[in-house]
Design brief:
- There is one protein chain.
- Strand 2 and strand 3 form a beta hairpin.
- This protein has one domain: OB fold (Dihydrolipoamide Acetyltransferase, E2P) (Beta Barrel).
- Helix content is 0%, strand content 57%.
- The protein is mainly β.
- Strands 1-2-3-5-4 form a five-stranded mixed β-barrel.
Length: 74
């Protein structure tokens, strides 16, 4: 998918999460970067357009969840 990064955060397990803008400002798309991918160590910043390849991981509170994401283009 292609989108604009709204927020970058890290969880208690050192996973990097990015929120990607969706059609609904309140419910962004949540994507966790694959820790084993070399692209996961490259800085991702708010406002940056990115293309990511992920596996769907269900929904949480109405927001799509994506897992094992690899950044394929900035």
């Amino acid at each position: 998918m292609v989108g604009t990064v709204q927020k970058v955060s890290r969880d208690a397990y050192a996973n990097i999460w990015i929120d990607i803008a969706s059609g609904n400002e309140v419910l962004p798309i949540h994507a966790v970067l694959d820790r084993n991918s070399p692209t996961s160590i490259t800085p991702v910043k708010q406002g940056l357009a990115v293309a990511i390849d992920c596996i769907g991981d269900g929904m949480q509170s109405g927001s799509p969840m994506l897992a094992r994401c690899i950044i394929v283009e900035r």
